[in-house]
TrEMBL record:
Gene3D superfamilies linked to this entry: 1.10.287.2900
Domain of life according to the entry: Eukaryota
Any single GO CC term annotated in Swiss-Prot or TrEMBL for this entry: mitochondrial intermembrane space
Pfam name, any one: CX9C
Listed name of the protein: IMS import disulfide relay-system CHCH-CHCH-like Cx9C domain-containing protein
InterPro entries membership: CHCH_domain-containing_protein, CX9C
Domain IMS import disulfide relay-system CHCH-CHCH-like Cx9C: 5-49
Biological-process GO terms, alphabetical: cellular respiration
């Protein structure tokens, strides 16, 4: 998972920074206020092979985590078990043969 986060930060820093600032500024309504920024992060990361592989292999865990966040918008920390399951899954993804350092695409 650290590889995926490093890649996201490396190739999508601007988008991640904007989204993080929005979430921090709107702790109880971030789902509504930050949706467009969330989509920009998703668009930026969706083209990276490592992230694509993790999303494919751990889609169930990620969907459950996202659902938990939607259902607990006022207390996202209650989703820590969901995030732990997703991270646990991401750590087990076999990245053999996946291009870890492709040429970054302009955003």
């Amino acid at each position: 998972m650290q590889v995926a986060m490093d890649i996201t930060t490396k190739y999508c820093h601007k988008e991640m920074e904007s989204y993080g600032q929005c979430v921090a500024a709107h702790p109880s309504t971030w789902q509504q206020h930050c949706q467009d920024l969330k989509m920009k992060v998703a668009q930026c990361t969706s083209s990276h092979p490592v992230i694509q592989k993790i999303r494919t292999d751990c889609s169930k865990e990620f969907t459950e985590f996202e659902r938990c966040l939607l259902e607990n918008q006022n207390s996202p920390t209650s989703c820590s078990a969901h995030v732990a399951r997703f991270l646990g899954c991401a750590e087990t993804v076999d990245l053999a043969g996946v291009a870890v350092n492709p040429v970054p695409q302009p955003s």
